[in-house]
């Protein structure tokens, strides 16, 4: 199921988090003119990249990204982090999103 999200409605200074979950993964930040000069961050949510695993939850809840994107594996791992923020959209990329995983995302987010 496709849902339209108007990026003009993005309110957070952190418009997009591109979530990774790998033992070793690069992280970067950029500013997107397309998103009214808001931030796009590529972050690795593997616990090894954080001072404490709880920092991941705190980071999302403090920054309130409008969109979280990633492959189904990364998003599945991310969904196990008990953050309270609800992004405007979750975008699955790179591989097929199985129906059972989509159903889990819909109930989580």
What does this structure look like?
The protein is an alpha/beta fold and 109 residues long. The protein has one domain. The chain is 25% helix and 25% strand. The chain contains three helices and five strands; from the N terminus they run E-E-E-H-E-H-E-H. It has helices at residues 54-63, 72-78, 99-108; strands at residues 14-20, 28-32, 38-44, 67-70, 89-92. A five-stranded mixed sheet has the order 2-3-1-4-5, covered by helices on one side. The longest helix has 10 residues, at 54-63. The radius of gyration is 13 Å and the shape is globular.
Separation, N- and C-terminal Cα atoms: 15 Å
Mean pLDDT: 86
**What structural class results from the helix and strand content?**
alpha/beta
Number of strands: 5
Strand order across the largest sheet? 2-3-1-4-5
Query: Secondary-structure element order, as H and E?
Result: EEEHEHEH
Number of helices: 3
C-alpha Rg, in Å?
A: 13 Å
The biggest beta sheet is recorded as:
5 strands, mixed
Structural domains: how many: 1
What spatial form do the alpha-carbon principal axes imply? Answer: globular
Measured as a percent range, the helix fraction is 10-25%
Give the strand content: 15-25%
Low-confidence stretches: none
């Amino acid at each position: 199921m496709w849902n339209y999200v108007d990026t003009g409605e993005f309110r957070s200074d952190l418009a997009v988090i591109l979530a990774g979950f790998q033992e070793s993964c690069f992280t970067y930040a950029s500013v997107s003119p397309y998103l009214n000069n808001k931030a796009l961050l590529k972050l690795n949510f593997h616990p090894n990249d954080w001072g404490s695993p709880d920092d991941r939850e705190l980071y999302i809840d403090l920054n309130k990204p409008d969109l979280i994107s990633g492959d189904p594996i990364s998003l599945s791992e991310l969904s196990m982090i008990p953050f309270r923020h609800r992004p405007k959209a979750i975008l699955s990329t790179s591989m097929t999103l199985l129906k059972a995983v989509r159903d889990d995302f819909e109930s989580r987010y």
